[in-house]
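User: tokens in, sequence out, please.
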């Protein structure tokens, strides 16, 4: 997994980097190794933004969150990302099952 962290108007501290690494490893441990993750963190006055983009073979997922706390923004964006990835996996699994069912019907006919 390749992780890129970018800070806009914010310095990426070791604590932020460790928090992201821990959360990303927990969230994306089941995805293959050929995953590129780009995290962009930014601050505008009292608003904290977290943008996360995951690029993998076959799909790209993007999530954005805005809160008054940076760590909450990161956690919420990761939660959105996990939902999207789960939806993608379920959809791919359903298509695989549907394809196998049609092949079985062809063989039976």
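Assistant: Sequence out:
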């Amino acid at each position: 997994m390749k992780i890129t962290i970018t800070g806009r108007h914010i310095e990426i501290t070791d604590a932020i980097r460790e928090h992201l690494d821990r959360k990303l490893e927990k969230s994306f441990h089941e995805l293959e190794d050929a995953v590129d993750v780009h995290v962009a963190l930014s601050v505008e006055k009292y608003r904290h933004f977290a943008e996360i983009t995951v690029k993998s073979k076959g799909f790209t997922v993007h999530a954005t969150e805005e809160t008054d706390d940076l760590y909450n923004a990161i956690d919420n964006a990761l939660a959105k990302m996990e939902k999207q990835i789960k939806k993608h996996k379920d959809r791919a699994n359903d298509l695989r099952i549907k394809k196998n069912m049609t092949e079985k019907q062809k063989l039976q006919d």
